[in-house]
Automatic annotation (TrEMBL):
This is Ribosome maturation factor RimP. Required for maturation of 30S ribosomal subunits. The lineage of its organism: Bacteria, Bacillati, Bacillota, Clostridia, Lachnospirales. It comes from the Bacteria. InterPro entries: Ribosome_maturation_RimP, RimP_C, RimP_C_sf, RimP_N, RimP_N_sf. Belongs to the RimP family. The gene is rimP. One of its GO terms (biological process) is translation. Residues 88-150 form the Ribosome maturation factor RimP C-terminal domain. Its main location: cytoplasm.
């Protein structure tokens, strides 16, 4: 998904902050919900992030944003973990989580359905492959997917 101009301005400020703390930048989004704008930063690391990790990134990014002032309107800054149903967006995500169960949501229905679940087989040339529980292998063009996440299985 293409980044907004605001996200493109914030990204070079954010990446060094995340990297110097040994964290991974999972996603960055600048969205309007109701009357408010939100700058959301999702970070992760092996074993999961702590509140202290989120606070450290938030404070450092806040200081950098105050200094550079790249965002015109008022906004709320949120820094958090991507959660147990982490979105898979980057090619590296599909490599790291190969073999895990994922949920795929499509913009347009295929065989009458828009949601699929199965074991991630991989991502090759922009095509996501997964194996459903019954052994059926399905392929989805990544740009045709609305959302791809790790499945939450209880």
């Amino acid at each position: 998904m293409a980044k907004s101009n605001t996200e493109k301005k914030v990204l070079p400020l954010l990446e060094p902050i995340v990297e110097e703390r040994g964290l991974e930048l999972v996603d960055l989004e600048f969205v309007k919900e109701g009357a408010n704008w939100y700058l959301r930063v999702y970070i992760d690391k092996e074993g999961g992030v702590s509140i202290d990790d989120c606070e450290a990134v938030s404070r450092a990014l806040e200081a950098k944003l105050d200094e550079k002032d790249p965002i015109e309107q008022a906004y709320v800054l949120e820094v958090s973990s991507p959660g147990i149903d982490r979105p898979l967006k980057k090619d590296a995500d599909f490599i790291r989580f190969q073999g895990e169960i994922i949920d795929v949501k499509l913009y347009k229905a295929v065989d009458g359905q828009k949601q699929f679940q199965g074991k991630l087989l991989g991502l090759n040339d922009g095509v996501i492959s997964l194996e459903e529980e019954d052994g059926t292998v399905r392929e989805f063009v990544q740009k045709d997917t609305a959302d791809v996440r790790l499945a939450v299985i209880f």
